[in-house]
Amino acid sequence: MSDKMRLVTRSDFDGLVCAMILKECNLIEDIKFVHPKDVQDGKIELSNTDITTNLPYDQRVFMCFDHHESELTRNKEMKDRNNWHIDGHAKSAARVVYDYYKKEGYALEHISDEIMTAVDKGDSADFTEDEILNPKDWVLMNFLMDARTGLGRFHDFRISNYDLMMELIDYCVNHSIKEVLELPDVKERVDLYMEQSERFKAQLKEISHMDGKVIVVDQKAAGDTIYAGNRFMIYALYPEAEISVHVAWGFKKQNTAVMIGKSIINRSSKFNIGELCLEYGGGGHANAGTCQIDNDKIDSVLPEIISRINAG
Question: Which fold does the domain 203-311 belong to in CATH?
Answer without folding.
Answer: Diaminopimelate Epimerase; Chain A, domain 1 (3.10.310)
